[in-house]
Amino acid sequence: PRPMKSECDEGLLLDGILSQARVDGSEIRRLLSQSHVRASDLIAEPEHRVEAMLQRAGLVVGDIFKIVRALRGFHSDGGGGGGASSQPQGKAARGSRNQPTMRCGLIVYSTTVLIVTLTILSFYLPAMIYHVRSTNHRMTRSTTYSTTLHGHYSLPAALGGLPAGGAMPAPRGPSGARVMMVTANQPLPCTTRRGDWIMELALRNKLMYATLHDYKTWWSTELVSAWDLEAAWNKIPLLYVLMHPESPVTQGVEWLLWMDDDAIFTDMNFTMPLEQYDRDGINLVIWGDPQRVYRANDIQGLNTGVFLLRKCEWSRQLMAEVAALATPSIRRQIGNKGRIAEQGALTWVLHSQAERWKDRVQLERNFTLNGNWMDYAKKWVPGKPKLALPVWGNDAIPFVVQYAGCQMCRGHSENGSWHDGGVRKCQNAFIEAYTFGDDQVLSLLGLRHLTMDTHLVRASAGSELYQRHQRMTRCLPSFLVIGTQKGGTSSFHFLLKSGWHDAVRVNSGEKEIHYFSWDDQFRQGPLTYQQRFDGSGDRLGECAEETKLRGEVSATYLDYPKAAERAAMLLPSARIVVLLREPVARLVSSFNMKWQVEICGKLTWSRTDCYNGVTSMRVINENNVAPKQRAAAVKVWNECSVDKKGLDHDCLRRDFVDKLSAAISDEERRLGECAKPGAFEELGSCLGVQGLEQAKLYALMEGALFLYRSMYSEHLAKWLKVYPAEQLLVIPSERLKEAGDMKDTMGRFARFMGLSDSGAEVHNDLIFKSSPAAKGVGSDGHVHENGRTYIAEAPADLAEKIHKILCPKNQELAQLLLDKKLIAEVGDMPWLATALKRDIC
């Protein structure tokens, strides 16, 4: 049998333990005595056995956690000394010990007090630091203010003196200053692409809301108690420290509004009813379901992503209770395999100690504190106070939307739990919600976002900035025809330039300005751009003819990387016309032009069959446009010349097909690399079109990316990010081939621009005249690009391969056009309907 300690020794030890644990000593002594649990047992046994002993004794969970925390300093396996902390745990060893003397007991008690005190101090260290740093400042305050201060921060009523409800009436400042919004981000860079930018926007959203309502803010990136309260638990010690009565950063603050880093405000004008909470004596406001919390102990019964906490001792004690559940062994007992987080801990505390906390908790369901991002995606209507579709029967704008589970910052693929597509879906939904909220802020400056999924802004109609922009851009284009390359843009431009409509004017000089797509043109500035239309005007907004609608046609605008955003910044009200040709035919036509330039050099622009004009090395030398082009032409001459007098057509066909096949295979390989998990989010970025200087970009786009430029969904999506669908008109290029179809198409264009489609202003007779596209050579002697003859076409097997590569993008295009109501049905785009019927998809 174990030797018995004297009752005096046991009493001293138990007094020390209960004192350091700060629990109700009389009740616990009674329970321990009934269960025959001795102080020496608590010190000698390992932590998990102590927890079991205390549970069998009938102690409440919160008291168990506090006692275990106080005992941690005694649980040592080392030997030496005669103190209780060094006792062996085996029964034989304990049985062989001599009964400790009173002196030994006092040593044990003193050591216990010292170790436990140091342990507790480590937890309260942040608050002590605040106390020390502010001591000198407090000593200089007046006696009256000091008395008032101590009156505000009294002890809980149970310990002697806090008013009912536990609230501390802080000194009042301005109406919003009584609230501090608290949030935190991880201290390390995000591991997801665009994650840091997303987190920056989320923080900006919170700071803007706080600014609008005169809230104080506290943004944390530090782990306050990293050794035991990591990750999502970090908010608990952070709030605990901020609620310290003498914390200098929260003086005058009555409420702390916690926001997770992945939660954002979407109703920027709403404020929580603080006065009502004051009247009701509420200290904690959080979304929750009473049945699931108080009865079922369901972790999903509340949401700790956003909550409002009164700064008072009641709240500090609640945070301490939650923090106590961070002990791994406790987590294993109350959580699923120990994976309980702070939300589960708070649920457990409210469930297991409902009588203590319930009366001061508001499980708020009168407004949306926990909007789930998936419920609200694509339901925002810019500038409208209602959702496009109701969520759970309610079309009101939620106060807060949370992106829990998205992991937009912390590792979409570190453990393989998230794929790139899932992260993009989350981020896109976030941008929509963020933009909706941000527009409410920008409206105070007379600004708004161009669309729901872009960072670009424009002046709101009627604002001072809007009126200035309208004055300065009134001489610039009202419409842009943006492509596609080889899609009929030259025929469209010819008709407008020839005067098809009296109310329309296109630029003078060359057909394409490339102002928004080529850096050297864009750097010349908008005044030079304006002068391309009538040559006059020394200032922006001054021009000779103000009655005509000005327009421009540049086929590079659709797919060059910078064009869409540049156009939207300068011409946000412009109408956008898109000509889309069957993508395989477009690809082959584009490659044919490149191939002819490579073989013929300058002859490409003076003969429709330029390869028949290459009759000698002298012709090659006279018409070369670059050393690389000349080298390619010489190589073909050496392989295909017949008696040194011309080029053999069969040899040229083989050369054409071989080079086309090689170009497709090389680009297919690059596209395959971009399709791998973890590749760049945007296809263009992966292919390298972003950030290139103009010459390299031109060489890449015109000489290597034939498949990419036929992937219309990629390019059209960028324009729809900066222009609303109502400002776009999509026309099948095939509608420009026959005169009857072209007449209908041009009438549709006129109506789109708000012009008459018949009458004296419209000259449809021009439609039935030959254009440069039909003649092959224009009036200036230059060959029209679509007038070039083909030495060969893509073989059937190669064409089928190209169709197969492009089919998924054609499907995306069909869905995009239908979603944005740019077509009523797929049949409106005949080539698209045919492409989607093919078996290869």
Brief descriptors of the model:
6-stranded mixed sheet; 47% helix; alpha/beta; 18 strands; 841 residues; single chain
What would you say this structure looks like, in words?
Helices cover 47% and strands 9% of the residues. It is of the alpha/beta class. α1 packs across α5 (61-71), α4 (47-57) runs antiparallel to α5 (61-71) and α11 runs antiparallel to α14. The strands form five sheets. Strands 2-1-3-6-5-7 form a six-stranded mixed beta sheet, sandwiched between helices. It is elongated and about 120 Å long. The longest helix has 38 residues, at 102-139. It is built from 36 helices and 18 strands.
Strands, helices and their partners?
Layout (H helix, E strand, L loop, with lengths): L6 H15 L3 H10 L4 H6 L2 H11 L3 H11 L19 H5 L6 H38 L3 H10 L4 H4 L18 E6 L10 H18 L3 E5 L14 H8 L12 E5 L3 E3 L8 H7 L3 E5 L1 H6 L6 E9 L2 H12 L3 H7 L7 H11 L1 H4 L3 E3 L7 E2 H4 L9 E6 L2 E3 L3 E3 L17 H23 L4 E3 L7 E3 L4 H10 L5 E3 L7 H9 L6 E3 L12 H4 L3 H9 L14 E5 L9 H8 L4 E6 L2 H18 L16 H7 L3 H14 L8 H26 L8 H5 L6 H10 L2 H4 L2 H11 L5 E5 L6 H14 L19 H4 L20 H24 L10 H8 L4
Parallel strand pairs: 1-2, 1-3, 5-7, 8-11, 14-16, 14-17, 15-16, 17-18
Antiparallel strand pairs: 3-6, 4-11, 5-6, 9-10, 12-13
Helix pairs in contact: 1-5, 1-7, 4-5, 10-19, 11-14, 14-16, 25-27, 32-35
